[in-house]
Specification:
Elements: H1 2-8, E1 12-14, E2 20-25, E3 36-41, H2 46-56, E4 62-63, H3 68-73, H4 94-97
Antiparallel strand pairs: 1-2, 2-3, 3-4
């Protein structure tokens, strides 16, 4: 799943505080679920406390599909100007970059 995002989207995104974080999709490729899991952040950043708290509780730090991080992550898979990464893939954009059958 992370390999799909690395190929067809952004793994590293700019967070609202200007630092960078690594994200991974929450659901399978093509699912239409635009949520992203925040998997790595800079120590001392605003997001670091949230990620640490989630991990302490055995949870994932998940960002909504309308977050700037999700929009950056799925930018190559959604139509320009969309306000949410949830929903169907953009026609011709992600499909043209996907690998064929193995």
């Amino acid at each position: 799943m992370q390999d799909d995002m690395a190929r067809a989207g952004q793994l590293w995104v700019t967070l609202p505080d200007g630092t960078h974080g690594a994200v991974a999709p929450v659901d399978r490729r093509g699912s239409g679920d635009g949520h992203v899991r925040l998997v790595h952040v800079l120590e001392g950043s605003r997001a670091a406390e949230t990620v640490a708290e989630a991990q302490e509780q055995g949870l994932m730090a998940v960002l909504p599909p309308n977050s700037s991080a999700a929009l950056q992550a799925f930018a190559e898979q959604i139509d320009p100007g969309r306000r949410s990464a949830a929903g169907p893939l953009a026609t011709g954009r992600a499909r043209g970059k996907a690998r064929g059958p193995r």
